[in-house]
Amino acid sequence: MDESLTAFMNSFATLARLAQEQQPAPSGEPLAPVLEQYLGFAPHTVSVLTETFGNHRLADANIVLEEFASHDPEATIIGIAGQERNHMDLADMLDPGSMHVSIAEPIFTSLAVGPGQQRRFLAYGIHLFKHLGKPLAVALRRADPRFGRETCTLEIIAADPQAGDAFVAGFREQLRETSVFRGHVISFKPSDYGNSNAGVAFHERPKLGKDELILPEGVRERISEQVLGIGLNRDFLRSHGVHLKRGVLLYGPPGTGKTHTVRYLTSEAEGQTVILLNGNTLPLVSEATAMARALQPAVVVLEDCDLIAEDRHFGHGPQPLLFEVLDSLDGLDADADVAFVLTTNRVESLERALVQRPGRIDLAVEIPRPELEGRLALLKLYGGHVHASEETLAEVAQLIEGTTASFVKELIRRTVLIAAIKAQSPKDEDLLTAARELMSDQALLTRNLLGGTSNPDEEDFDDDGEASSFGYIAHSPMSGSYFPMALGEDETDLGFKDE
After folding, report:
1. Of 156, 165, 237, 271, most Cβ neighbours within 10 A?
2. Where do the CATH 3.40.50.300 domains begin and end in the chain?
3. What confidence tens digit (pLDDT) does each residue in 347-380 have?
Protein backbone atom coordinates (compact mmCIF):
# COMPACT_ATOMS: atom_id res chain seq x y z
CA MET A 1 0.00 0.00 0.00
CA ASP A 2 1.58 3.32 -1.04
CA GLU A 3 1.94 6.30 1.29
CA SER A 4 -0.82 8.39 -0.38
CA LEU A 5 -3.43 5.63 0.03
CA THR A 6 -2.40 5.08 3.67
CA ALA A 7 -2.71 8.80 4.37
CA PHE A 8 -6.17 8.88 2.76
CA MET A 9 -7.44 5.94 4.82
CA ASN A 10 -6.13 7.50 8.03
CA SER A 11 -7.82 10.78 7.19
CA PHE A 12 -11.10 8.99 6.37
CA ALA A 13 -11.02 7.08 9.68
CA THR A 14 -10.45 10.35 11.53
CA LEU A 15 -13.37 11.95 9.69
CA ALA A 16 -15.68 9.05 10.56
CA ARG A 17 -14.65 9.23 14.24
CA LEU A 18 -15.26 12.97 14.39
CA ALA A 19 -18.68 12.57 12.71
CA GLN A 20 -19.67 9.91 15.23
CA GLU A 21 -18.53 12.11 18.11
CA GLN A 22 -20.76 14.92 16.84
CA GLN A 23 -23.87 12.71 16.98
CA PRO A 24 -26.18 13.68 19.87
CA ALA A 25 -26.07 11.28 22.76
CA PRO A 26 -29.11 8.98 22.90
CA SER A 27 -31.65 10.17 25.44
CA GLY A 28 -33.31 6.81 26.22
CA GLU A 29 -32.10 3.75 28.05
CA PRO A 30 -29.86 1.43 26.05
CA LEU A 31 -31.87 -1.36 24.42
CA ALA A 32 -29.52 -4.27 25.20
CA PRO A 33 -29.49 -3.84 29.02
CA VAL A 34 -33.28 -3.45 29.08
CA LEU A 35 -33.76 -6.73 27.23
CA GLU A 36 -31.07 -8.43 29.31
CA GLN A 37 -32.82 -7.44 32.52
CA TYR A 38 -36.19 -8.74 31.22
CA LEU A 39 -34.92 -11.98 29.67
CA GLY A 40 -32.39 -12.81 32.36
CA PHE A 41 -29.43 -13.22 30.00
CA ALA A 42 -27.41 -11.23 27.47
CA PRO A 43 -29.66 -11.25 24.34
CA HIS A 44 -26.74 -11.21 21.90
CA THR A 45 -25.69 -14.68 23.11
CA VAL A 46 -28.63 -16.53 21.48
CA SER A 47 -29.95 -16.81 17.95
CA VAL A 48 -32.86 -14.62 16.86
CA LEU A 49 -35.84 -16.46 15.36
CA THR A 50 -37.30 -14.70 12.32
CA GLU A 51 -40.75 -14.95 10.77
CA THR A 52 -41.90 -12.98 7.70
CA PHE A 53 -45.31 -12.35 6.13
CA GLY A 54 -46.94 -10.02 3.61
CA ASN A 55 -47.47 -6.38 4.47
CA HIS A 56 -51.25 -6.78 4.12
CA ARG A 57 -51.17 -9.15 7.14
CA LEU A 58 -49.86 -6.49 9.56
CA ALA A 59 -53.25 -6.04 11.23
CA ASP A 60 -53.71 -9.81 11.53
CA ALA A 61 -50.25 -10.24 13.05
CA ASN A 62 -51.03 -7.53 15.60
CA ILE A 63 -54.26 -9.24 16.59
CA VAL A 64 -52.45 -12.56 17.07
CA LEU A 65 -49.66 -10.93 19.10
CA GLU A 66 -52.18 -9.10 21.26
CA GLU A 67 -53.85 -12.44 22.00
CA PHE A 68 -50.55 -14.00 23.12
CA ALA A 69 -49.64 -10.98 25.23
CA SER A 70 -53.08 -10.80 26.84
CA HIS A 71 -52.28 -13.90 28.92
CA ASP A 72 -49.50 -12.01 30.72
CA PRO A 73 -50.81 -9.16 32.91
CA GLU A 74 -47.32 -7.63 33.02
CA ALA A 75 -46.86 -7.58 29.23
CA THR A 76 -45.56 -4.33 27.77
CA ILE A 77 -44.34 -2.80 24.50
CA ILE A 78 -41.19 -0.75 23.97
CA GLY A 79 -39.94 1.13 20.92
CA ILE A 80 -36.52 1.71 19.36
CA ALA A 81 -35.02 5.17 18.86
CA GLY A 82 -32.92 6.57 16.03
CA GLN A 83 -32.65 6.11 12.28
CA GLU A 84 -30.41 3.09 12.76
CA ARG A 85 -33.49 0.97 13.42
CA ASN A 86 -34.41 1.25 9.74
CA HIS A 87 -31.12 -0.27 8.62
CA MET A 88 -30.39 -2.84 11.32
CA ASP A 89 -31.91 -6.16 12.32
CA LEU A 90 -32.58 -6.83 15.99
CA ALA A 91 -29.46 -9.00 16.24
CA ASP A 92 -27.33 -6.15 14.85
CA MET A 93 -28.78 -3.70 17.36
CA LEU A 94 -27.84 -6.02 20.23
CA ASP A 95 -24.29 -6.73 19.04
CA PRO A 96 -21.89 -5.31 21.68
CA GLY A 97 -19.68 -3.92 18.92
CA SER A 98 -22.46 -2.03 17.14
CA MET A 99 -23.64 1.52 17.65
CA HIS A 100 -25.54 2.21 20.84
CA VAL A 101 -29.30 1.79 20.30
CA SER A 102 -31.75 3.12 22.88
CA ILE A 103 -35.41 2.53 23.60
CA ALA A 104 -38.20 4.97 22.78
CA GLU A 105 -41.95 5.04 22.33
CA PRO A 106 -43.31 2.38 19.96
CA ILE A 107 -44.57 3.46 16.53
CA PHE A 108 -48.25 2.87 15.78
CA THR A 109 -50.27 3.17 12.60
CA SER A 110 -53.96 3.21 11.72
CA LEU A 111 -55.18 0.34 9.54
CA ALA A 112 -58.56 -0.50 8.03
CA VAL A 113 -60.32 -3.51 9.55
CA GLY A 114 -63.53 -3.21 7.54
CA PRO A 115 -65.50 -0.75 5.40
CA GLY A 116 -65.28 2.57 7.22
CA GLN A 117 -63.55 0.99 10.23
CA GLN A 118 -60.04 1.81 11.46
CA ARG A 119 -57.91 0.51 14.33
CA ARG A 120 -54.55 1.50 15.76
CA PHE A 121 -51.88 -1.19 15.44
CA LEU A 122 -48.20 -1.48 16.25
CA ALA A 123 -46.01 -0.68 13.23
CA TYR A 124 -42.60 -0.99 14.89
CA GLY A 125 -41.87 -2.06 18.44
CA ILE A 126 -40.98 -4.93 20.77
CA HIS A 127 -43.54 -6.93 22.75
CA LEU A 128 -42.27 -8.20 26.10
CA PHE A 129 -44.40 -10.99 27.58
CA LYS A 130 -44.19 -14.49 29.01
CA HIS A 131 -45.22 -17.55 27.00
CA LEU A 132 -45.43 -20.91 28.77
CA GLY A 133 -44.01 -19.09 31.77
CA LYS A 134 -40.84 -18.04 29.90
CA PRO A 135 -40.03 -14.42 28.91
CA LEU A 136 -40.04 -13.52 25.22
CA ALA A 137 -38.99 -10.41 23.31
CA VAL A 138 -40.94 -10.23 20.04
CA ALA A 139 -40.07 -7.37 17.69
CA LEU A 140 -42.69 -6.52 15.05
CA ARG A 141 -41.60 -4.42 12.07
CA ARG A 142 -43.80 -3.41 9.15
CA ALA A 143 -42.49 -3.64 5.59
CA ASP A 144 -40.57 -0.62 4.31
CA PRO A 145 -39.20 -1.07 0.77
CA ARG A 146 -37.28 2.21 1.08
CA PHE A 147 -34.88 0.35 3.33
CA GLY A 148 -34.98 -2.96 1.48
CA ARG A 149 -37.61 -4.54 3.74
CA GLU A 150 -40.14 -6.14 1.41
CA THR A 151 -42.17 -7.97 4.06
CA CYS A 152 -43.31 -7.57 7.64
CA THR A 153 -40.94 -9.23 10.10
CA LEU A 154 -41.15 -10.84 13.52
CA GLU A 155 -37.86 -11.25 15.39
CA ILE A 156 -38.08 -13.43 18.51
CA ILE A 157 -35.61 -13.79 21.37
CA ALA A 158 -36.57 -16.47 23.88
CA ALA A 159 -35.12 -17.38 27.26
CA ASP A 160 -36.11 -20.98 26.55
CA PRO A 161 -35.70 -22.46 23.03
CA GLN A 162 -38.77 -24.66 23.45
CA ALA A 163 -40.90 -21.68 24.46
CA GLY A 164 -39.63 -19.78 21.42
CA ASP A 165 -40.39 -22.64 19.04
CA ALA A 166 -43.83 -23.12 20.60
CA PHE A 167 -44.60 -19.43 20.15
CA VAL A 168 -43.59 -19.45 16.47
CA ALA A 169 -45.70 -22.56 15.81
CA GLY A 170 -48.68 -21.03 17.61
CA PHE A 171 -48.25 -17.71 15.82
CA ARG A 172 -48.26 -19.41 12.42
CA GLU A 173 -51.36 -21.44 13.24
CA GLN A 174 -53.32 -18.48 14.56
CA LEU A 175 -52.25 -16.27 11.65
CA ARG A 176 -53.73 -18.86 9.29
CA GLU A 177 -57.05 -18.66 11.13
CA THR A 178 -57.11 -14.91 11.83
CA SER A 179 -57.90 -12.31 9.20
CA VAL A 180 -59.61 -8.94 9.23
CA PHE A 181 -60.48 -9.65 5.58
CA ARG A 182 -62.60 -12.74 6.23
CA GLY A 183 -66.18 -12.29 5.05
CA HIS A 184 -65.53 -8.90 3.43
CA VAL A 185 -65.42 -7.56 -0.13
CA ILE A 186 -61.84 -6.51 -0.82
CA SER A 187 -59.49 -5.54 -3.63
CA PHE A 188 -55.74 -5.21 -3.92
CA LYS A 189 -54.00 -1.85 -4.21
CA PRO A 190 -50.83 -2.28 -6.29
CA SER A 191 -47.53 -1.01 -4.95
CA ASP A 192 -44.58 0.49 -6.79
CA TYR A 193 -42.41 -1.84 -4.73
CA GLY A 194 -43.88 -5.12 -5.99
CA ASN A 195 -46.64 -7.60 -5.23
CA SER A 196 -45.44 -8.39 -1.70
CA ASN A 197 -46.25 -4.80 -0.69
CA ALA A 198 -49.67 -4.64 -2.28
CA GLY A 199 -52.24 -3.11 0.02
CA VAL A 200 -55.83 -4.22 0.46
CA ALA A 201 -58.93 -2.01 0.27
CA PHE A 202 -62.30 -2.81 1.81
CA HIS A 203 -65.55 -2.19 -0.08
CA GLU A 204 -69.15 -1.98 1.02
CA ARG A 205 -71.00 -5.10 -0.07
CA PRO A 206 -73.59 -4.07 -2.68
CA LYS A 207 -77.29 -4.63 -2.03
CA LEU A 208 -78.87 -5.93 -5.19
CA GLY A 209 -82.21 -7.73 -5.36
CA LYS A 210 -83.18 -10.39 -7.86
CA ASP A 211 -85.53 -7.96 -9.57
CA GLU A 212 -82.58 -5.65 -10.28
CA LEU A 213 -80.78 -8.28 -12.34
CA ILE A 214 -82.77 -8.69 -15.52
CA LEU A 215 -81.84 -12.00 -17.10
CA PRO A 216 -83.91 -14.61 -18.95
CA GLU A 217 -85.66 -17.27 -16.95
CA GLY A 218 -83.17 -19.74 -15.52
CA VAL A 219 -79.98 -17.82 -16.36
CA ARG A 220 -79.52 -16.12 -13.01
CA GLU A 221 -80.29 -19.38 -11.22
CA ARG A 222 -77.80 -21.28 -13.37
CA ILE A 223 -74.97 -18.86 -12.60
CA SER A 224 -75.83 -18.59 -8.89
CA GLU A 225 -76.05 -22.36 -8.60
CA GLN A 226 -72.52 -22.75 -9.92
CA VAL A 227 -70.90 -19.87 -8.03
CA LEU A 228 -72.81 -19.98 -4.73
CA GLY A 229 -74.92 -23.14 -4.68
CA ILE A 230 -71.93 -25.47 -4.61
CA GLY A 231 -70.69 -23.80 -1.44
CA LEU A 232 -74.10 -23.97 0.20
CA ASN A 233 -74.05 -27.73 -0.32
CA ARG A 234 -70.33 -28.26 0.30
CA ASP A 235 -70.70 -30.93 3.00
CA PHE A 236 -73.05 -33.04 0.89
CA LEU A 237 -70.80 -32.73 -2.16
CA ARG A 238 -67.68 -33.58 -0.18
CA SER A 239 -69.35 -36.64 1.31
CA HIS A 240 -69.94 -37.87 -2.23
CA GLY A 241 -66.37 -37.20 -3.36
CA VAL A 242 -67.27 -34.23 -5.57
CA HIS A 243 -64.82 -31.34 -5.99
CA LEU A 244 -65.80 -27.82 -4.91
CA LYS A 245 -63.42 -25.45 -6.71
CA ARG A 246 -65.00 -24.02 -9.83
CA GLY A 247 -64.53 -21.43 -12.56
CA VAL A 248 -67.26 -19.45 -14.31
CA LEU A 249 -66.75 -17.28 -17.39
CA LEU A 250 -69.19 -14.49 -18.28
CA TYR A 251 -68.60 -13.19 -21.80
CA GLY A 252 -70.28 -10.87 -24.27
CA PRO A 253 -70.14 -7.33 -25.68
CA PRO A 254 -69.40 -4.38 -23.39
CA GLY A 255 -72.31 -3.00 -21.41
CA THR A 256 -74.55 -6.06 -21.45
CA GLY A 257 -74.59 -7.05 -17.79
CA LYS A 258 -71.48 -9.03 -16.86
CA THR A 259 -70.34 -6.63 -14.16
CA HIS A 260 -73.89 -6.20 -12.91
CA THR A 261 -74.12 -9.97 -12.55
CA VAL A 262 -70.91 -9.90 -10.51
CA ARG A 263 -72.43 -7.27 -8.23
CA TYR A 264 -75.48 -9.47 -7.74
CA LEU A 265 -73.33 -12.49 -6.90
CA THR A 266 -71.32 -10.38 -4.45
CA SER A 267 -74.54 -9.22 -2.82
CA GLU A 268 -75.78 -12.80 -2.47
CA ALA A 269 -72.44 -14.11 -1.15
CA GLU A 270 -73.14 -12.71 2.32
CA GLY A 271 -70.50 -13.86 4.79
CA GLN A 272 -68.12 -14.99 2.04
CA THR A 273 -64.85 -13.29 1.19
CA VAL A 274 -64.98 -11.69 -2.27
CA ILE A 275 -61.67 -10.61 -3.83
CA LEU A 276 -61.88 -8.22 -6.79
CA LEU A 277 -59.13 -8.00 -9.39
CA ASN A 278 -59.17 -5.74 -12.44
CA GLY A 279 -56.83 -3.62 -14.51
CA ASN A 280 -53.36 -3.35 -13.04
CA THR A 281 -54.21 -5.66 -10.12
CA LEU A 282 -54.84 -8.68 -12.36
CA PRO A 283 -51.16 -9.74 -12.06
CA LEU A 284 -51.82 -10.26 -8.33
CA VAL A 285 -53.87 -13.38 -9.05
CA SER A 286 -51.40 -15.65 -7.22
CA GLU A 287 -51.68 -13.52 -4.08
CA ALA A 288 -55.47 -13.44 -4.42
CA THR A 289 -55.60 -17.22 -4.81
CA ALA A 290 -53.49 -17.77 -1.71
CA MET A 291 -55.73 -15.41 0.26
CA ALA A 292 -58.90 -17.08 -1.06
CA ARG A 293 -57.55 -20.48 -0.05
CA ALA A 294 -56.97 -19.22 3.49
CA LEU A 295 -60.30 -17.37 3.72
CA GLN A 296 -62.63 -19.87 2.06
CA PRO A 297 -65.48 -19.90 1.32
CA ALA A 298 -64.35 -17.23 -1.11
CA VAL A 299 -65.03 -15.81 -4.56
CA VAL A 300 -62.24 -14.37 -6.74
CA VAL A 301 -63.44 -12.01 -9.49
CA LEU A 302 -61.22 -11.22 -12.47
CA GLU A 303 -62.84 -8.37 -14.39
CA ASP A 304 -62.02 -7.92 -18.09
CA CYS A 305 -59.58 -10.81 -18.06
CA ASP A 306 -59.08 -10.40 -21.82
CA LEU A 307 -56.71 -7.58 -20.80
CA ILE A 308 -54.25 -10.20 -19.57
CA ALA A 309 -54.66 -12.54 -22.52
CA GLU A 310 -51.95 -10.68 -24.44
CA ASP A 311 -49.87 -9.62 -21.43
CA ARG A 312 -46.15 -10.31 -21.78
CA HIS A 313 -45.02 -8.93 -18.43
CA PHE A 314 -44.70 -12.29 -16.69
CA GLY A 315 -42.26 -14.04 -18.96
CA HIS A 316 -41.92 -14.89 -22.64
CA GLY A 317 -44.19 -16.83 -24.90
CA PRO A 318 -47.93 -16.59 -25.50
CA GLN A 319 -50.33 -15.43 -22.77
CA PRO A 320 -48.06 -16.08 -19.75
CA LEU A 321 -50.21 -14.19 -17.27
CA LEU A 322 -53.42 -15.79 -18.51
CA PHE A 323 -51.84 -19.20 -18.00
CA GLU A 324 -50.89 -18.10 -14.48
CA VAL A 325 -54.56 -17.35 -13.82
CA LEU A 326 -55.62 -20.77 -15.06
CA ASP A 327 -52.80 -22.49 -13.20
CA SER A 328 -53.92 -20.74 -10.01
CA LEU A 329 -57.28 -22.41 -10.47
CA ASP A 330 -55.62 -25.75 -11.04
CA GLY A 331 -53.34 -25.31 -8.02
CA LEU A 332 -56.23 -25.22 -5.55
CA ASP A 333 -57.17 -28.37 -3.70
CA ALA A 334 -60.20 -30.04 -5.24
CA ASP A 335 -62.24 -29.55 -2.07
CA ALA A 336 -61.35 -25.86 -1.71
CA ASP A 337 -64.57 -23.85 -1.55
CA VAL A 338 -63.29 -21.16 -3.91
CA ALA A 339 -65.09 -19.87 -7.00
CA PHE A 340 -63.34 -17.94 -9.77
CA VAL A 341 -65.58 -15.62 -11.81
CA LEU A 342 -64.00 -14.23 -14.98
CA THR A 343 -65.56 -11.61 -17.25
CA THR A 344 -64.46 -10.69 -20.75
CA ASN A 345 -65.63 -8.65 -23.71
CA ARG A 346 -63.48 -10.68 -26.14
CA VAL A 347 -63.83 -14.37 -25.48
CA GLU A 348 -61.92 -15.19 -28.67
CA SER A 349 -58.74 -13.89 -27.01
CA LEU A 350 -59.16 -16.46 -24.24
CA GLU A 351 -60.47 -19.45 -26.13
CA ARG A 352 -57.13 -21.00 -27.12
CA ALA A 353 -55.77 -20.77 -23.57
CA LEU A 354 -58.97 -22.28 -22.18
CA VAL A 355 -58.75 -25.18 -24.61
CA GLN A 356 -55.12 -25.79 -23.64
CA ARG A 357 -56.13 -25.82 -19.96
CA PRO A 358 -59.32 -27.93 -19.97
CA GLY A 359 -61.38 -28.18 -16.82
CA ARG A 360 -60.42 -24.82 -15.32
CA ILE A 361 -63.68 -23.23 -16.43
CA ASP A 362 -66.74 -25.31 -15.56
CA LEU A 363 -69.41 -22.97 -16.91
CA ALA A 364 -69.27 -20.32 -19.64
CA VAL A 365 -72.27 -18.05 -20.20
CA GLU A 366 -72.64 -15.60 -23.06
CA ILE A 367 -74.43 -12.36 -22.17
CA PRO A 368 -75.34 -10.52 -25.40
CA ARG A 369 -77.25 -7.34 -26.07
CA PRO A 370 -80.83 -7.53 -24.76
CA GLU A 371 -83.72 -8.39 -27.01
CA LEU A 372 -87.02 -6.49 -27.02
CA GLU A 373 -88.33 -7.99 -23.79
CA GLY A 374 -85.08 -7.22 -22.02
CA ARG A 375 -84.94 -3.63 -23.28
CA LEU A 376 -88.49 -3.05 -22.06
CA ALA A 377 -87.63 -4.46 -18.63
CA LEU A 378 -84.53 -2.26 -18.44
CA LEU A 379 -86.55 0.85 -19.30
CA LYS A 380 -88.94 0.05 -16.47
CA LEU A 381 -86.11 -0.70 -14.05
CA TYR A 382 -84.04 2.43 -14.66
CA GLY A 383 -86.90 4.72 -15.68
CA GLY A 384 -89.14 4.18 -12.69
CA HIS A 385 -89.12 7.91 -11.84
CA VAL A 386 -89.88 8.96 -15.40
CA HIS A 387 -93.44 7.54 -15.20
CA ALA A 388 -93.67 6.95 -18.94
CA SER A 389 -96.75 5.27 -20.37
CA GLU A 390 -96.69 1.63 -21.42
CA GLU A 391 -97.21 2.68 -25.04
CA THR A 392 -94.20 5.02 -24.98
CA LEU A 393 -92.01 2.44 -23.25
CA ALA A 394 -92.92 -0.12 -25.91
CA GLU A 395 -92.19 2.38 -28.69
CA VAL A 396 -88.82 3.31 -27.22
CA ALA A 397 -87.89 -0.35 -26.65
CA GLN A 398 -88.43 -0.92 -30.38
CA LEU A 399 -86.53 2.24 -31.29
CA ILE A 400 -83.36 1.38 -29.33
CA GLU A 401 -82.87 -2.06 -30.86
CA GLY A 402 -79.25 -3.22 -30.77
CA THR A 403 -78.32 -1.25 -27.66
CA THR A 404 -77.24 -2.33 -24.18
CA ALA A 405 -78.18 -1.80 -20.56
CA SER A 406 -75.50 0.89 -20.27
CA PHE A 407 -77.21 2.69 -23.11
CA VAL A 408 -80.59 2.48 -21.35
CA LYS A 409 -79.13 4.03 -18.18
CA GLU A 410 -77.73 6.95 -20.18
CA LEU A 411 -81.03 7.28 -22.05
CA ILE A 412 -82.93 7.70 -18.78
CA ARG A 413 -80.41 10.26 -17.52
CA ARG A 414 -80.72 12.22 -20.77
CA THR A 415 -84.51 12.12 -20.41
CA VAL A 416 -84.40 13.56 -16.89
CA LEU A 417 -81.90 16.22 -18.00
CA ILE A 418 -84.19 17.34 -20.82
CA ALA A 419 -87.02 17.68 -18.31
CA ALA A 420 -84.78 19.55 -15.85
CA ILE A 421 -83.78 22.10 -18.48
CA LYS A 422 -87.50 22.71 -19.10
CA ALA A 423 -88.10 22.91 -15.33
CA GLN A 424 -90.78 20.24 -15.40
CA SER A 425 -91.27 16.60 -14.49
CA PRO A 426 -90.14 14.03 -17.10
CA LYS A 427 -92.83 13.17 -19.63
CA ASP A 428 -93.30 10.71 -22.47
CA GLU A 429 -92.14 13.27 -25.02
CA ASP A 430 -88.86 13.76 -23.12
CA LEU A 431 -88.13 10.04 -23.25
CA LEU A 432 -88.92 9.90 -26.97
CA THR A 433 -86.79 12.98 -27.66
CA ALA A 434 -83.83 11.52 -25.80
CA ALA A 435 -84.19 8.17 -27.56
CA ARG A 436 -84.32 9.76 -31.01
CA GLU A 437 -81.28 11.91 -30.25
CA LEU A 438 -79.20 8.96 -29.06
CA MET A 439 -80.31 6.77 -31.97
CA SER A 440 -79.56 9.44 -34.58
CA ASP A 441 -76.63 9.15 -36.98
CA GLN A 442 -74.96 12.07 -35.22
CA ALA A 443 -74.85 10.04 -31.99
CA LEU A 444 -73.33 6.94 -33.58
CA LEU A 445 -70.02 7.21 -31.69
CA THR A 446 -71.77 7.86 -28.37
CA ARG A 447 -74.03 4.88 -29.00
CA ASN A 448 -71.09 2.62 -29.74
CA LEU A 449 -69.20 3.84 -26.69
CA LEU A 450 -72.21 2.79 -24.63
CA GLY A 451 -71.99 -0.71 -26.06
CA GLY A 452 -74.51 -0.19 -28.84
CA THR A 453 -74.11 -1.22 -32.46
CA SER A 454 -74.30 0.84 -35.62
CA ASN A 455 -76.29 -1.94 -37.28
CA PRO A 456 -79.14 -3.24 -35.10
CA ASP A 457 -80.02 -5.81 -37.76
CA GLU A 458 -76.56 -7.34 -37.51
CA GLU A 459 -76.75 -10.96 -36.40
CA ASP A 460 -74.43 -12.60 -33.92
CA PHE A 461 -72.54 -15.47 -35.51
CA ASP A 462 -71.03 -18.46 -33.83
CA ASP A 463 -67.66 -19.98 -34.66
CA ASP A 464 -69.13 -21.89 -37.62
CA GLY A 465 -70.41 -18.68 -39.21
CA GLU A 466 -74.08 -19.50 -38.59
CA ALA A 467 -76.36 -17.03 -36.90
CA SER A 468 -77.46 -17.95 -33.41
CA SER A 469 -81.14 -17.53 -32.62
CA PHE A 470 -80.43 -17.60 -28.91
CA GLY A 471 -79.51 -14.64 -26.78
CA TYR A 472 -77.45 -16.79 -24.42
CA ILE A 473 -75.37 -19.87 -24.99
CA ALA A 474 -74.42 -21.32 -21.62
CA HIS A 475 -71.81 -24.04 -21.96
CA SER A 476 -70.35 -26.42 -19.40
CA PRO A 477 -67.01 -27.65 -20.81
CA MET A 478 -66.68 -30.39 -18.22
CA SER A 479 -69.99 -31.99 -19.17
CA GLY A 480 -69.93 -30.94 -22.81
CA SER A 481 -73.49 -29.60 -22.47
CA TYR A 482 -74.91 -26.43 -24.00
CA PHE A 483 -77.78 -24.39 -22.57
CA PRO A 484 -79.52 -22.13 -25.15
CA MET A 485 -81.04 -19.04 -23.52
CA ALA A 486 -82.05 -15.49 -24.43
CA LEU A 487 -81.29 -11.75 -23.79
CA GLY A 488 -79.07 -9.75 -21.45
CA GLU A 489 -79.03 -6.92 -19.00
CA ASP A 490 -77.18 -4.02 -17.55
CA GLU A 491 -73.47 -3.69 -17.06
CA THR A 492 -72.26 -0.83 -14.90
CA ASP A 493 -69.27 0.03 -12.82
CA LEU A 494 -68.93 -2.38 -9.93
CA GLY A 495 -69.80 0.53 -7.70
CA PHE A 496 -67.81 -0.76 -4.74
CA LYS A 497 -66.80 2.01 -2.38
CA ASP A 498 -63.14 2.06 -1.37
CA GLU A 499 -62.37 2.21 2.33
Report:
1. 156
2. 186-367+473-485
3. 887 777 777 677 778 899 988 888 899 999 999 9
